[in-house]
Structure formats: structure tokens, C-alpha cells
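Saturday, quiet lab. Running sequence design on the C-alpha cells for the scaffold JK sent over.
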């Protein structure tokens, strides 16, 4: 149980201007990728979030020299002093993306001993496709003492993923970038952070083509140099802010975005009657009337992202009519709706589908965050509700959102931290 809770006084329309931070799911791939470089790397636009801090501790454990200027959103990593390829379970279990240490260390040292990853409990999250990819590249794999052990001199191969997997695509790309010869990843994930990681590696000397399509071709190189790189803005934070503006019937501008990354969400908000427009790196969200119910199905990029399903389904709890939300990526990503029932939400869950009957009002209540995006969904519920909402275990939110409370308060919300009894 966290020592603090978030207390939200609801029903305040958001208005004004804000900005989006660097992408979490890009950052957690780029930081391990630095292990493949032979010189110092400076990463710009890195968000100050718990997952980044955990990765910093892991890199320091490995022997890298790391400094992080949170004010400037800049991390400097010198990987030349790395002296071990082992990441014990007490580190790896602190986050999901610790699995990228497998591909990065394997690519660097020809060996990686890494504990099982942790992360949000949103359903079963196997990594069989990562392991299949490493094996196809020539790694031998065994499990021993709670560690996954990978070893081998890697050479290029053709890997056909059985499903579109972001983590699997990135991890195998990390392992293959310095493997001997030519690797082809078929049925690769096309998410923006896959493209950003490929751009980072290419800017350090890698030879990766096709990222953003479902076929990625990698010609192995002997070395990657150092340099500096700026990570892309966070697509899910942008979407969460857009949904928060819609939820409070607000009028906001979000700066520093890539609007095309938001097309799937924008289309759904327009369908609900929300006004969304964009120019260059700014997105404006305005609401003039009540929202209409919609049908929503999560899909891989460029479809509607599962990571925005939870904030969006919170918003749908107050839309006029009956909405249907189909979650196709994870088998247990509706826990926030159970919490929201205590706020008056009318929801029926059947397997991976939630049927949401919009209600005119939600009432503030004590609720508990159970995962990162579910926590953000409860914040949106609290912003919409009458009275006071208390969110327990809000540290889930700090894993992936930089300064969310401050950003919302600067837009006129009333969100504060208080000691949890
Ligand atoms: N899957 C397998 N086997 C594998 C890999 C994946 O069966 O080897 C299945 C998963 O169980 C899931 C689906 O394939 O049902 C998609 O999983 P994917 O590998 O794409 O997800 P991930 O790499 O574990 C990343 C993000 C998630 C985001 C998903 C989907 C990171 C660190 N995590 O997870 O982000 O939901 O892609 O876009 O990048 C979040 O930010 O809140 C979050 C959960």
C-alpha cells in the first residue's frame, strides 16, 4: 500500500495549454539499447518516471556510468565500463521492459543472464516469441536459479513472429543488430516506439530497414558508436490528456505531439462528438456538448491502442447510450471498471468485452489503482465525478506518467497528494 493517495475534487473543466513528455515505451527500449554502443550516448527528452529510474539502477548495477538531469530530461550513459551480463531478479522484477536487457546484453556480450520481468498485471504476458527469436539467431537458452540464461555467437536468420509483438520485435532487433549477416523479422510490430528504436540504432551506425512496416531487415554491423538522440513524444500520455480534456468538457492545447500517432484515438473522439484538431505538433481538444456512446476494439498500431482502452472506457462511463469495448490484446485489462462501479458506473464485463451504459453523473469515492493505465483511468473518472475521489496506490501512475498531477493542475484540475491513512 502506497504511503500517499491522490485526492481529486471533480467537475472542473480543463482549459489552457500543456505539453507532452518523452515516450515511456520508447525510452525503456532506448536505454538498454545503449549497451550495444561503444561510446557515450546522450538521450534527450527522457521522461522522469519510475520505469526510467529503475533502468538507470539496472545499468549502474551492470557497471555503466549514468547521470540523469531530470530538469533537462537528459540522460548520459557511458556503457564502456559494463562488467557483467547478469541482471538479478530483484532488479528485473521491478518492471516489464527489463526483458530488453536480454536482447541488449546478448547483442553486446554474446551472453545474458536475466531474471523474469515484472510489470502491470493485465493478463498473461508470455515472452515465448522473444525466446524463439533469440534461439533462431543461434542463442542457447536455459533456465537456472530463477534466471533465463542466453549464450551464443549470433548470426542472422529469418524470424516469423506468430503474433504482432512490440516487445518481441524490439528485443530480437536488439539481439540482431550486431549479429553476423542478415536478419529478417516478419510479422513485426509497427508501433511508433519500434520505429523510434530503429531510428536510434541507425543513428548510432546500425543498418535497419523497414521499421514501421511488418517486415524489418537488419544487416549486422560490427560496432555502434556513441552520440545523442531525442526520443519521440509519448503517444499514450498525449491520448490520456486528450481524453481528460474530453471527460471534463474542457478546451485544451497539447504541445510537442506527433498528431498522426493519435489518429485512431482522434477518430473515436470525433465519433463521440468531441472536437479535435491539429497543426504541426499541437493538438486541440474541445467539447461543446455531451458525448455519444461508441464501439471500440483494441488493435495493434495503427489500430486503437490497448494502452488507451482504460482511460477511454472511463470516459465512456458518462457517454449517452451503451458502449461496447473489446480488448483483444490482454485478457484482464478491465480492473479499473470494477473500481469505477463504486463511483456509479454501470458496466457489465463478459470475457474480453465490457458493455458500458453511460450514466449522467459519477460520484466521487475511494478507489484503488491496480495498474498504470488503469490508474490513469481512475484519475479521469475522478476529474469527471461529483465530489471527492480518493485514489489509493497511485504509484502505479508514476511508473509511466511524468508529472501528471502537476500538468492537470496547471490546466485547472484540483488534484493533490495526501498521506494515505
Ligand atoms: N505475446 C505472446 N508472446 C510473446 C509476446 C507477446 O503471447 O512472446 C502476446 C501478449 O501476451 C499480448 C500480445 O502478444 O497478448 C501483445 O504483447 P506485446 O509483446 O506487443 O506487448 P509488450 O511488449 O509486453 C508493450 C508495451 C505495453 C503495450 C503493448 C502493446 C512496453 C514496455 N510495453 O508490451 O505497454 O500494452 O506493448 O502495445 O513497451 C503500458 O505502457 O501500459 C503497457 C502495458
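Result came back. Writing it out in full:
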Amino acid at each position: 500500500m502506497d504511503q500517499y493517495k491522490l485526492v481529486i475534487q471533480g467537475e472542473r473543466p480543463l482549459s489552457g495549454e500543456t505539453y507532452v513528455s518523452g515516450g515511456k515505451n520508447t525510452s525503456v527500449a532506448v536505454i538498454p539499447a545503449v549497451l550495444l554502443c561503444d561510446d557515450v550516448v546522450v538521450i534527450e527528452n527522457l521522461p522522469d518516471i519510475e520505469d526510467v529510474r529503475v533502468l538507470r539502477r539496472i545499468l549502474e548495477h551492470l557497471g555503466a556510468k549514468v547521470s540523469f538531469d531530470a530538469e533537462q530530461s537528459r540522460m548520459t550513459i557511458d556503457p564502456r565500463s559494463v562488467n557483467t551480463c547478469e541482471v538479478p531478479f530483484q532488479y528485473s522484477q521491478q518492471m516489464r521492459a527489463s526483458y530488453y536487457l536480454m536482447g541488449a546484453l546478448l547483442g553486446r556480450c554474446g551472453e545474458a543472464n536475466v531474471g523474469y520481468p515484472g510489470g502491470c498485471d493485465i493478463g498473461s504476458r508470455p515472452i515465448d516469441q522473444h525466446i524463439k527469436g533469440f534461439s533462431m539467431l543461434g542463442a542457447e537458452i536455459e533456465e537456472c536459479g530463477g534466471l533465463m540464461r542466453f549464450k551464443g555467437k549470433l548470426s542472422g536468420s529469418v524470424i516469423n513472429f506468430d503474433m504482432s509483438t512490440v516487445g518481441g520485435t524490439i528485443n530480437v532487433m536488439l539481439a540482431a543488430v550486431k549479429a553476423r549477416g542478415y536478419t529478417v523479422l516478419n510479422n513485426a510490430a509497427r508501433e511508433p516506439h519500434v520505429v523510434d528504436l530503429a531510428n536510434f540504432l541507425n543513428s548510432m551506425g546500425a543498418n535497419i530497414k523497414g521499421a514501421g512496416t511488418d517486415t524489418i531487415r537488419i544487416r549486422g554491423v560490427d560496432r555502434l558508436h556513441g552520440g545523442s538522440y531525442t526520443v519521440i513524444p509519448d503517444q499514450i500520455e498525449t491520448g490520456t490528456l486528450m481524453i481528460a480534456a474530453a471527460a471534463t468538457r474542457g478546451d485544451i492545447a497539447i504541445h510537442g505531439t506527433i498528431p498522426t500517432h493519435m489518429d485512431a484515438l482522434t477518430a473515436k473522439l470525433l465519433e463521440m462528438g468531441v472536437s479535435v484538431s491539429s497543426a504541426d505538433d499541437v493538438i486541440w481538444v474541445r467539447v461543446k456538448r455531451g458525448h455519444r456512446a461508441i464501439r471500440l476494439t483494441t488493435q495493434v498500431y495503427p489500430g486503437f491502442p490497448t494502452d488507451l482502452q482504460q482511460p477511454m472506457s472511463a470516459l465512456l462511463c458518462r457517454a449517452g447510450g451503451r458502449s461496447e469495448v473489446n480488448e483483444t490484446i490482454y485478457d484482464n485489462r478491465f480492473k479499473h471498471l470494477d473500481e469505477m462501479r463504486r463511483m456509479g458506473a454501470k458496466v457489465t464485463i463478459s470475457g474480453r468485452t465490457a458493455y458500458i451504459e453511460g450514466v449522467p453523473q459519477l460520484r466521487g469515492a475511494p478507489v484503488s489503482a491496480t495498474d498504470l493505465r488503469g490508474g490513469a483511468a481512475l484519475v479521469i473518472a475522478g476529474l469527471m465525478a461529483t465530489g471527492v475521489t480518493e485514489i489509493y496506490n497511485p504509484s502505479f501512475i508514476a511508473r509511466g506518467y511524468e508529472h501528471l498531477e502537476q500538468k492537470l493542475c496547471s490546466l485547472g484540475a484540483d488534484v493533490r497528494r495526501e498521506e494515505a491513512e
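Notes for JK: Residues 25, 28, 96-97, 120, 124-130, 163, 165-168, 189, 191, 305-307, 329-330, 372-373, 400 surround EPU (CB under 6 Å). The chain has two domains: 4-21+233-419, 24-230. Ask whether to fix the surface positions before the next round.
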